[in-house]
Specification:
Chain lengths: ~325, ~280
């Protein structure tokens, strides 16, 4: 198992804030909108340097999505910011008609996704957003795994032409990816090469997968770990190549197993290479109030759950 | 004036002919609101809107128009064809398989003249505000026009947008309301009363003007006047009284023809009332 270390913990939303600021410096057409959550989305640096390119919309997310769609007409590249719940479920029809169907170059940037939002509870902890967004034709869906990858992803989507959903989170987590990485949309990152099982993880679950990989190594299991930061378009080639070698797969995501990354992988494998698969994901449930760590443990999203899923899926190999 | 009122009325008559023929041709679509807004579209595209012949999505240096109540697509498609965006023969494909003239307007099939999809109601004002914000950032002093159904104003997103536009002094935004008092299930007064739209928009900070949307003189003058109101920090709302089905006697004033196509006999009755002025498609 390749050794991963970290010297600091940071939140992925701060990676977004840093990326947005830098994207704004690189391209004067980058504009930002927020629905009364500037601090939570870490948009202050962008607003300070480019006040005229920022629009405070107030608590009116539907209007924000429509305005963003309209701003693309004339060449702007709007980044909208609010919590993941209010970025997707609340404004699904506005995204569907004014952004996706109209093929507008809007970047829907969503913080506080998943259980790790914590104490605010289930009203704010969306676990369905990946599914909602990946079903929209033409929508790119990205869920980066740490501060550095989120920053790189934010810079990459500014250069990509078309609608994008960028999902990130609230808690501080280890920073373990390269600060100077080049983010390629739709390209998997090989975290660790192995032979016994393929662990495919996205977002906050990537560090958990690394922790699981270390425990599995102690148990004599050589896990291949792949980070799928782009859930759509899915890197079919990387997944198939790995699964051909290992013969079984565990998918890990901070999302409902209905409609998430795991289902995308299952769709690929069932048509191309039927393979035993286990899902580390929430199981058709809402969340609740608690600390992020308590919630990840209660809902089965810890390294120990990945280890158990790996042991189970290896047992299912023919 | 680029045209006389009589010339504009003649264009509107042809557009009305096209509307009933298009809706009859596919036996679906929304003739009532389309007919009611034929005069508005004529005034806008042939007299008021500063638009370029060659369509570009970005519309830099030209006025933009967004149709929020997308179901009245027949009137827009006919207007765009006669304004030169595409050949009028294409109107025959309305709502048919493989057409660029979808039931509701869309950019998806790349029909020139259309910059956003509409159909699911209540989204157009927000989009227009966005386009106007970009024009402001780009130092482009062109205007942004919209049209909304009156029933459509029951959608909440409109009021988010209506609150935003005055606060941000969007005074190059000119929104018109097709104030015909009808919606699918009946008169708006019975379905969900809009009460005083004038008072509501004024309370939100808009400059409201009133026009007769089926009187060419009134609508042309009203839209020209609206353009002179810029510089005062207020978006402009044109409360435009219309008759659903205007121009076809048996369709007028009733919600029955909101979304119903005429049969062969009804088509003949309608066409007899609408002189062919520019040549049928």
């Amino acid at each position: 198992m390749k050794k991963y270390t970290y010297t600091e913990k940071k939140d992925t939303r701060s990676g977004f804030g840093a990326g947005l600021h830098e994207a704004g410096q690189k391209n004067e057409n980058v504009v930002a909108l927020c629905a009364d959550l500037v601090g939570s989305l870490k948009m202050e640096a962008f607003i300070k340097e480019f006040p005229e390119r920022f629009t405070q919309v107030g608590i009116a997310e539907a209007n924000m999505i429509g305005i963003a769609a309209g701003m693309t007409i004339g060449g702007k590249i709007p980044f909208t910011g609010t919590f993941a719940n209010f970025s997707t479920g609340r404004v699904y029809d506005q995204i569907r008609q004014s952004v996706a169907y109209s093929n507008k170059n809007v970047k829907i940037c969503a913080s506080h996704a998943g259980l790790t939002l914590g104490e605010d509870g289930a009203t704010h902890q969306i676990l369905e957003d990946i599914g909602l967004m990946k079903m929209l034709p033409g929508m790119v869906v990205i869920n980066p795994c740490d501060y550095n990858q989120t920053k790189a992803a934010t810079l990459a989507i500014a250069e990509y032409e078309g609608p994008v959903y960028l999902r990130f989170g609230r808690p501080v987590i280890p920073v373990f990816t390269d600060p100077d990485q080049k983010f390629e949309i739709g390209k998997a990152w090989m975290v660790n090469e192995g032979t016994d099982v393929t662990i495919i993880a996205t977002g906050h679950m990537v560090w958990k997968a690394i922790e699981a990989g270390e425990k599995l190594a102690e148990l004599g299991i050589d896990a291949e770990i792949i980070n799928i930061h782009t859930i759509k378009p899915l890197d079919d080639e990387a997944i198939l190549k790995s699964v051909k070698k290992t013969g079984c797969v565990v998918t890990c995501e901070e999302h409902n197993k209905f409609g998430g990354l795991g289902e995308s992988v299952a769709r690929l494998l069932t048509t191309e290479l039927p393979t035993p698969q286990e899902f580390v994901a929430t199981n058709d449930t809402f969340g609740e109030s608690g600390t992020p760590d308590q919630l990840m443990a209660k809902y089965g999203l810890d390294a120990v759950n990945i280890v158990e899923a790996v042991q189970k899926v290896i047992g299912r190999k023919k | 004036m680029k045209h006389t009122i009589k010339e504009l009325e003649d264009i509107a008559s042809q557009i009305r002919r096209d509307i009933v023929r298009m809706v009859h041709g596919c036996q679906s679509g929304h003739p009532g609101g389309s007919l009611g807004c034929a005069d508005f579209f004529t005034a806008l595209y042939f007299e008021v809107l500063n638009h370029k012949k060659e369509f570009s999505m970005d519309g830099v240096g030209e006025d933009l128009f967004f149709l929020s109540n997308g179901h009245i697509s027949p009137v827009w498609y006919s207007t765009l064809a006669h304004a030169g965006y595409f050949d009028k023969s294409e109107l025959a494909t309305f709502r048919k398989l493989n057409s660029r003239l979808q039931g509701h307007p869309t950019t998806h099939e790349h029909l020139p003249g259309i910059r956003i999809a509409s159909g699911s109601l209540g989204q157009g004002m927000s989009v227009a505000i966005g386009a106007a914000l970009t024009k402001r950032l780009n130092g482009d002093n062109s205007y942004v026009f919209t049209l909304h159904g009156d029933g459509e104003l029951q959608e909440g997103q409109n009021w988010e947008a209506a609150m935003f536009a005055p606060f941000h002094e969007m005074d190059r935004l000119i929104c018109s309301v097709d104030y015909n008092g009808q919606q699918i299930d009946g008169p708006t007064k019975k379905v969900l009363s809009l009460d005083s739209l004038q008072a509501k928009f004024e309370a939100f900070g808009w400059h409201v003007i009133n026009t007769d949307g089926n009187d060419m003189q009134s609508i042309v003058e009203g839209l020209h006047y609206a353009k002179t109101l810029t510089g005062k920090g207020k978006p402009i709302l044109n409360l435009m009284s219309t008759q659903m089905g205007a121009g076809v006697d048996y369709m007028m004033g009733s919600h029955k023809w909101h979304g119903t196509a005429p049969n062969d006999e009804q088509l003949a009755l309608a066409l007899a009332q609408l002189p062919e002025t520019l040549g049928d498609y």
